[in-house]
Design a protein that fits this description.
This protein is mainly alpha-helical and 136 residues long. It has one domain: Cytochrome Bc1 Complex, Chain D, domain 2 (Orthogonal Bundle), CATH 1.10.760.10. It contains 7 helices and no strands. The radius of gyration is 22 Å and the shape is elongated. The structure holds heme C (HEC).
Length: 136
């Protein structure tokens, strides 16, 4: 009798376990947030506000919310030119982020374009791939 009880218990456990679904895949914005925290946050800050005179904000800037091709190119190439950002110059350089995969650039820019008060459309890996091909 004990054996039967054990068998039933084991079968129930296996059945329950097989019904437990794996965690749902994360969406682009969620993955982008994690990438942002790893690769961009130190300079552009948690809330995208930047650091006065050093690193520009990513909230509501023309670069972030404007032409996606220019934005992707900027992030892949970085900048040492002290380009004025909406009329203000910043002393730091932005290192090229071209070590990130197409999907990663797409995810991080999708996150940035829909956070910090920004409400712009998502960026796809295909768009990043197309821009990367023009700068290699
Ligand atoms: C070492 C500091 C640093 C890191 C890390 C960094 N940036 Fe920047 N970023 C800068 C600086 C400095 C500028 C402005 C450079 C200039 O004006 O020439 C800039 C400019 C920008 C701009 C264009 C201007 C604006 O504010 O809209 C975007 C977009 C941007 N960065 C996104 C990112 C993203 C996304 C990441 C992470 C993948 C990142 N940056 C990582 C320092 C950094």
């Amino acid at each position: 009798m004990k054996k039967v009880t054990t068998t039933i218990f084991v079968l129930t456990a296996i059945t329950l376990f097989s019904f437990t679904k794996p965690a749902p895949p994360q969406d682009s914005k969620t993955r982008g947030k994690a990438l942002y925290e790893t690769y961009c946050l130190t300079c552009h800050q948690d809330d995208g506000s930047g650091v006065p005179k050093l690193n520009p904000p990513l909230s509501k800037t023309t670069w972030v919310n404007g032409d996606k091709k220019k934005l992707i190119k900027w992030v892949l190439s970085g900048s040492t030119d002290k380009v004025p950002i909406d009329g203000v110059t910043y002393d730091n350089n932005m290192p090229p982020q071209d070590y990130l995969k197409d999907e990663e650039i797409a995810d991080v820019l999708t996150y940035v374009r829909s956070s910090f008060g920004n409400k712009s459309s998502a960026v796809t890996p295909a768009e990043v791939k197309a821009v990367r091909a023009t700068i290699k």
